[in-house]
Amino acid sequence: MFSDRSVTYGDALALARFAGLFAGKRKDYQVRLMSATSFADLRDMPAVLICAYNNEWTTRLTADSRFLFLPAIPQRIGIKDRLNPANLNWTMEWRADWDVPEDYALVSRVFDPTTGNMIVIAAGALQYGTSAAAEFLTGEQWLGEALRSAPAGWQRKNVQFVLRTKVLKKTAGPPEVLATHVWDYTTSRPR
Questions:
Q1: 117-124/47-50 β-pairing
Q2: pLDDT higher than threshold 70 for residue 5
Q3: To the nearest 10°, the Cα dihedral for 102, 63, 112, 163?
Q4: What digits encode the pLDDT tens for the residues 64-79?
């Protein structure tokens, strides 16, 4: 889902990666704007949410998660750890020209009790992180590598990853996992 604002190149790359994945697996999918997606839509089927700060559903559905996007405060964007709120290592100074050396992303696969469905979130603080998050989820190399160190039984639990991507000439590099959190579906608050 996208907001009704213009779509960045990195967000379009993320959409293309997911569309290719679903088409390759012969799975039906729909592309919807964030503003055209209702709560009822999220209750009807699982969803992949793309983008962070311009996707209200991403913000709402990660509000109780351990890792979430820092509120868009002046001059600072990124991801915070609810269990370590003083840690600002996954944040960066906001630059209007988007010329940053790295970006951070949040990948979540959660069973959302309010919708009753599985929700996947691939969102960067900027477009580079969103592109890296989609690469992480759609390329077997990155996700498979990250899940090898996940605790037993992760398949039946919620999972979050914090990622970093280096940015060179306004292009995202490969995703790098910085943190992982796994918790039971029945636990709404992080532990």
A1: parallel
A2: no
A3: 10
A4: 899 999 886 778 899 9
Strand partners of residue 153: none
Provide the residue count of the chain. Answer: 191
CA distance 52 to 132: 13
CA-closest candidate to residue 34, choices 14, 18, 20, 48:
48
Other C-beta atoms within 10 Å of 159: how many?
Answer: 20
Nearest to 163 by CA among 81, 79, 51: 79
CA 137 to chain centre: 10
Q: Look up tokens 């636990």; give the residue.
A: 187
Buried b (16+ CB within 10 A) or exposed e, 9-47: ebbebbbebbeebeeeeeeeeeeeebeebeeeebeeeeb
Structure confidence at residue 52 as a pLDDT band (50, 70, 90): confident
Rounded-to-integer distance, Cα 43 and Cα 30, Å = 14
Across the range 41-46, mean pLDDT stands at 82
- Sorted by sequence, the CB contacts under 8 Å of residue 27 that are 6+ apart come out as none
Q: Nearest Cα to 55, choosing from 129, 117, 151?
A: 129
Beta-carbon contacts of 95 under 8 Å, excluding residues fewer than 6 positions away, are none
Beta bridge partners of 165: 103
